[in-house]
Amino acid sequence: MNNAFQRHRRLRRTASMRSLVRETFLRKEDMIYPLFIVEGEGIKEEVGSMPGVFHYSLDRLHEELDEITGVGLQSVIVFGVPKHKDERGTSAYEVNGIVQRSITYIKENYPSLTVIADTCLCQYTDHGHCGVIHDGDVLNDQSLELLSQTAVSQAQAGADIIAPSNMMDGFVAAIRAGLDEAGFEDIPIMSYAVKYASAFYGPFRDAAHSSPQFGDRKTYQMDPPNRLEAIREAQSDYEEGADFLMVKPALAYLDILRELKDRFPLPLVAYNVSGEYSMIKAASQNGWIDEKDIVLEKLTGMKRAGADLIITYFAKDAARYIDER
Ligand code: PBG
Question: What whole-number distance in Å separates Cα of residue 104 and Cα of residue 159?
Answer without folding.
Answer: 8
